[in-house]
Design goal:
2 copies of one chain form a homodimer. Chain A has 10 helices and 17 strands. In chain A, strands 1, 10, 11, 12, 13, 14, 15, 16 and 17 form a 9-stranded mixed beta sheet that branches. In chain A, strand 5, helix 5 and strand 6 form a beta-alpha-beta unit. The mean pLDDT of chain A is 96. Chains A and B meet through strand 10 and strand 13 of A and strand 10 of B.
Chain lengths: 370, 370
């Protein structure tokens, strides 16, 4: 473990993930009260944090359960006492489907849901559920702009929903309608419009399903970048924000909307200056301590900029004299560009409050990749 | 575990890291015989594979030990029976230095070395070694073009070496002289020239150290991209190649040199087609299954190109009809852009030979980030 309760920030072994609990608590409260006011339920995405400690805090704050992407994650969250888990993803192949059915059987007192976008998979799922004496909630995924998975049209959604209804082991719950690419559109009007298009498409599919006599109790989707627009309409029953608990700087690049609650950076990578020469410092954190798909983690202090990142190092060069006094052994807080794959690199999150370590939480589903 | 011995490739749960053992064996043999012919010792970098199984195979093939970057890695390799470990990195801060000294004490029958580039750290290291009754090998790191760590000049190397000699717990072994940025220079003449410059600088420092009566038994450095040039001169006693066992496509971008042994791609990410629509397929492997810092993992088959990568997905679109028949559930082999941070995402490497799973190896030092 990189720290002990009571340690100062400077005592934490680095590189380490550090969670500012005051910011975390504030982010969670803002999300829950905004969603409550809008009348939607919150099912936070646990792929962001992969932590039972955080999932239980989200549920204590009013979340109805969690989302995840992999069976391995669902196993950990169900095993850790979360009673309502939705895999917002397609699961394919008999081996995986059997594992899913066995999980549903093992936790038959909990809710477990999965998404489908293909008839043949629905039939295989039904078959293994019968073999394993299991039942599952099923959501038809509708592509509402992500262009990644999901059926393309409302007509196809109806057709697939009809197929699900033919299998008594499967309970058709509704629609998964997540517009992932909408989350990071920079301008407020663009994000709002993308959310509106997604909701309109989901509403059309829901209407067609209901016309056809098919149940569609829940439309679920939406993320940190669009949740207020998603929640504000009358289409989404549930929202699935993940990143809001941490906030990475890629989300911070989005134009702010004064009508939407703002979230603070709560998650940091703590690093140590391990070498310095003139106007160059080298930190002990690189590609194995943060993901660079949205750019390298950025220092929270001024006067220095990231010049290069390699596996275990980040090299910073001096921009001007505005920054702190730097010496070998000094600690540096960095804001990750993209929290989800950054969290997945670590075994532990060190929680701090006003500069003191409060606890060290295991990242329970770290590496639950399949 | 994602597979069992005897499984076919199609049975492996995905996403999974897959190692082709015939290619791996060939890569190891080519490296060892080339280095043997050139008269240099091989100390493979274990930061690439983080695996005791691989480290022991490297040593059985003639490697003298391994390199690593972190104390956590050194703990695992020493604990797993590797008797000679060099941390090719600076370790700073009393907490970490004490852990290092304790490790040296615990494995006092083995060799453990570390790099230094700062006088104050040498003094702290000496102090904790005395307190813990431990001794360590020390290498002065000389910056030979990486511009990341290491002293800048031969004169500084001599000065720091002299400081090391003042501390009886520390054994001055020689110079760490790794030109990391030289490894990925695309042209053969550029790589050759960068290696030559690095070797010349190391030779100068060694000569000055010897003139000053300081020991410099070992000059160590060099990587997969330059090892034959490093090995060919009379400066390097040891080379530290890591990536050669796996080969990523970033190394494959280097211009080939007919005089240098070529390595084959031995490491793959196996994924499954989890959704498809028209000329688009979605695989179940994304940023949490491979690192994208050198670009997304690339399909081994023709006819398709990667369009986008998100946390758990890669979307491929059709280029032409040259590719294989694709259906939901089909498996896809991908070549990682950068092996080291990709390996670090996984708990297991599935080893295969001629399409059958031979074994599943734990990635022992996965996540040993501090």
């Amino acid at each position: 473990m990189p720290a002990q309760p009571g340690d100062a920030l400077a005592d934490i072994d680095t590189p380490a993930l550090v969670l500012d609990l005051d910011c975390f608590d504030g982010n969670l409260e803002r999300m829950m009260s905004a969603a409550g006011a809008a009348g939607v339920r919150v099912r936070p995405h646990a792929k962001s944090h992969k932590s039972l400690q955080i999932a239980h805090r989200q549920i204590a704050a009013g979340a109805i359960g969690v989302c995840c992407q992999k069976i391995g994650e669902a196993e950990i969250f169900l095993g850790g006492g979360i009673r309502d888990v939705l895999i917002t993803n397609e699961i394919v192949g008999v081996r995986k489907l059997r594992r899913l059915a066995q999980l549903a059987k093992l936790f038959s007192g909990a809710r477990l849901g999965v998404c489908v976008d293909d008839t043949s998979v629905v039939r295989q799922l039904s078959l293994v559920c019968a073999e394993e004496d299991a039942g599952l909630d099923v959501y038809v995924e509708l592509d509402v702009g992500q262009n990644r998975a999901g059926v393309a049209t409302s007509a196809e959604a109806v057709e697939l929903a009809r197929e699900v209804m033919r299998h008594p082991r499967l309970t058709l719950m509704g629609l998964q309608a997540y517009a992932g690419s909408a989350q990071h559109r920079r301008g407020v009007p663009e994000r709002r419009a993308a959310s509106k298009r997604a909701a309109a498409k989901a509403a059309e599919a829901r209407a067609l399903m209901r016309e056809a006599g098919l149940p569609c109790e829940i439309v679920t989707g939406g993320g940190t970048g669009t949740f207020m627009y998603d929640a504000g309409g009358d289409v989404y029953d549930e929202i699935q924000p993940g990143s809001f608990v941490f906030m990475d700087f890629d989300y911070a690049r989005n134009e702010r909307d004064a009508d939407v609650p703002q979230f603070e950076h709560a998650l940091f990578v703590l690093a140590t200056v391990m070498s310095m020469r003139g106007d160059r410092i080298t930190l002990d954190a690189g590609l194995k301590a943060f993901s660079t798909d949205s750019g390298p983690a950025r220092p929270t202090f001024t006067g220095w900029q990231v010049q290069s990142v390699s596996d275990e190092h980040s090299v910073l060069t001096r921009l001007d004299d505005s920054g702190p006094d730097v010496r070998i052994g000094a600690k540096a807080l960095l804001v990750p560009g993209h929290c989800d794959p950054t969290v997945n690199l670590h075994d532990w999150i060190v929680t701090v409050r006003r500069g003191r370590v409060e606890d060290v939480w295991r990242i329970d589903a770290r590496g639950a990749v399949f």
